[in-house]
Amino acid sequence: MKRATGATPLIAIAAAAVDTETTGLDATKARVVQIGAIGIAHGKVVQEPRFNLLIDPGEAIPPEASRVHGITDADVDGAGSFLDAWAPFQEFVGDRILVGHSIGFDLAVLKRECQRARLPWKKPRSLCVRLLATIANPDLADHSLDMIAAWLRLEIAGRHTALGDAIAAGDIFAALIPQLRKRNIRTLGEAEVACLALSHTLEAGHRAGWVEPVSRPQVPAFQPVDPYAYRHRVGSLMSGPPVVVKSVEPTKQVIDLMVRRKISSVLVSDRGAPDQPVVEYGIVTERDLMRRISSDAERVFELPIGSIATRPLISIRAAAFAYRAIGRMDRLKIRHLAVRDEAGMLVGVLSARDLLRLRATAAINLDDTIEHAKDVAELAAAWSMLPGVARSLIGEEIDPRVVAEIISEELCSLTRRAAVLAEQQMQIEGHGPPPCAYAVLVLGSGGRGESLMAPDQDNAIVFAHGEPAGFEDSWFKNLGAKLADMLDISGVPYCKGGVMAANAAFRGSLDTWKGRVEDWVHRHRPEDLLNVDIVYDLRPVHGDMTLAAQFIDHAYDRGHAEPVFAKLLGEQITTGYPFTLFGGFQLENGRLDIKKHGLFPIVATARTLAIRHGIRERSTRARFEKLAALDIGGERDIKAMLAGHTMLIGLLLGQQTHDIYAGIPASNRIEIGALTREQQAELKRLIKRLQSAPDLVRDLMFA
């Protein structure tokens, strides 16, 4: 179980709901007579195991206390002391976050009991559902356990017993998670910061002698990662072209081939040739052959190799980073992966031996978790690993653009897996399978491979056939809504601009999308093209890739053929003027939006000129490099744009990863005061230079 950090989503934290019954309400004097606890995982109370223990307080239980919880001196006669209970309680709780109602009281009582028993005390990380409910619904008449449960329509059993109240607190916590998400409180750190803002309530607890119910989240130290696994892609490590044999070839003949070629595996297909869809192949490894020889030595050499091959063939994209391959091999306990291109065609084989060149025993932190997540809680937990990895990679001085590519890979994987889970949910609910072939597309920064740690959802769906508002469209509308909900819960919020497949403008048949492109290229005002440009950054992540390819080919062909279209897109490029009269930055709460004033004009310049000049590259860097290769634009301008792009991504990633751990929602604003003088001066020069980006686009539009 990984220890929770400020970046851990509330739905993904491992917690234990806790309650105590005591001899009184004065935290400075009360003794514990009962402890109850229950686990919380994946945003739900785990009914078993549970902790429920009576404790002899070593003094008489006052009658007024017994009238509340029903525990008398006779009930605790023969029970163990607090000293006896503490070790098993600690074992049950472990490293989990403690959750309770008015938990500051329980912590104070437990702390004093430890002091009396001369036991070491370390304040656990904790959350108070009373404070969380105050944040989620400040208009409740009061925030007692009963009132909160009634608001959330929860039934409480065993009220005023330690276990009963612990279960109630756990159920309330689970029910509060979606309520807090509506207020943009998603992570443990954000919840802690929000609770700490309730100063009046916290002060009342201090006066009563309670322990602070929450702690301020701390930004952890850099964690070591293996930079090699994040620098290399599968395509640069694989063996290719792969060795493929026909399914009918005798096993003896294939063994001879493997010995002669000094290879540890072969791929098998009916045609016996590479460059076909990866689904047509199986694999035979040295281990497969040894096992079969051991069990069937008399016949194995004459058997057709296809009868031994393992199917389906496990594969990975050539463009995937090596850490993904390491994680997939480890998860599935295999030593070979087929490698496919973006169209799903076989291009090579990757073996564990190939990965040994990467020192792959070092920590990689990111693995293949997203690809096999069973629900949104697992998706959220996997996504929450990214800030730490990004922060460590920046510390390793890896190019910030590469870090953004890794984040984009995870975002695309998250979207792909959420689409799979959404489709499964559609069938569970009786909507049936997809009515036709379709593809899920990631747009914007994710499609470009330039995602940062504050992404929102930019996605779309293209399907094979069907009219707007028809049966097919309605099915995919439902799928898009489920996809959006799953991504939002996982940690990628709904797009404020509505760029989501759940909305009609971002889903449609291939013909519908082609019709939209025709409409775009004949618009006459730049304001009519809002959100159109990011479609040109699309990357298909799930489904029929040929549909996506046909759409993007058509979009680029038509965009390139209509110069006015690119011209109107160029007229949308604005930078704003973020400077004061005296040349300083105009700041909001000490921060500057460097996406608006820096990244946007760079990205939009590259995209607009790429559309105009028929360049099919997706990333900003590749677009600028292709423009330079075509002798479009001055070398100095393009180098300045690329250097500025790298610097801005690095600044934003550093700020965002810090903020996420500190419980501050990630944004596109950076704290200028945290930059060095040199960084501030460089940023100022860049943004001033970008004021001329619209002029540069106009100059190069017809170059």
Automatic annotation (TrEMBL):
One of its GO terms (biological process) is DNA replication proofreading. CDD domains: DEDDh, NT_GlnE_GlnD_like. One of its GO terms (cellular component) is cytosol. Residues 238-299, 309-369 form the CBS domain. Keywords: CBS domain. It catalyses: DNA(n) + a 2'-deoxyribonucleoside 5'-triphosphate = DNA(n+1) + diphosphate. DNA polymerase III contains a core (composed of alpha, epsilon and theta chains) that associates with a tau subunit. This core dimerizes to form the POLIII' complex. PolIII' associates with the gamma complex (composed of gamma, delta, delta', psi and chi chains) and with the beta chain to form the complete DNA polymerase III complex. This is DNA-directed DNA polymerase. It comes from Mesorhizobium sanjuanii.
